[in-house]
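User: Um, any thoughts?
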Amino acid sequence: MALRISAAVERWPVAGQFIIARGAKTYVDVLVVAVSDGAHFGLGESTAIYYNGETAESCLAEVEAVLPQLEPMNADAAREAVQILLPPGAARNALDCALWDLAAKAAGVPLWRYAGLSAAPVPLVTAFTISLGEPAVMEADAARAAARGFGLLKLKLTGEGDIARVAAVRSGAPHARLIVDANESWGDLDIAAEAAALAALGVEMIEQPVAAGQDALLAEVRAPLPLLADESCHSAADVARLAPYYDGVNIKLDKAGGLTEALKIADAAQERGLKVMVGCMLCTSLAVGPAFLVAQRADWVDLDGPALLAEDRPDHFGFTGGTIAPPARFL
């Protein structure tokens, strides 16, 4: 049966500010795609990969450009076609996830079963992001997050003064597990020495220490804790190229272009013995749903996007005691 597809941009306010090395955000614009076959209805959400030059509006235009080719198809055929029509990125993610949602509903099964999981997804420990700031600010933010029950904290770093920031967070949340995101900012640093100093403070993993495309800088680095590729890894085809330099990959559906490619990345990483992290951009629970399925296979989970917003969608994922749990409808 032919499809009806529509797309729109929505704005969601952030709780306070979300600050990383590239700047601060007080809101996030997300792209929402709705797909119907006349009897069932599917939804998908994505957030533009701004460091790749995407905007919510450019992603909307990408989706609208391919609708004439997709609408005559059924959901499964359209999902196959969109892998070819659009590159990895947020536009394809919103379409891909909406088509997965529609196909699962048309089949009368939950999405996890339609996607091939062997068991219903279970609640997971998720990281909570501590925005980049002065050490004292990050210490206070970490203390508040720990008081809310988050036992895994992800710190945004910038390549300057990072050890002081991590030490402050350790003081504010002495019992928390810590992971850090260097956001491509350590290219001019002694990465092994920086990692050793952070390991002494209890950090257990570092994301993307060097700029995407400069991954070979890690060839001779012998860090005492795992290094994971984030901005460098967009598709399953990237995994073989990155394996000599990293210990794992961070899978985000917005980068990958949807659940379809994210599952392939997880397979490719695990085939090579690499660790897997599943993350997200700032987003609502609508975007987290498909990522939560991939996260069932992850070593680290960072799906706190909705917890960083001032509000979320009705019937949303729950964040209690440092875990993320799906709403009943998801099961």
Summary: The chain has a mean pLDDT of 96. Residues 124-330 form a domain with the TIM Barrel fold (CATH 3.20.20.120). DSSP finds eleven helices and 14 strands in the chain.
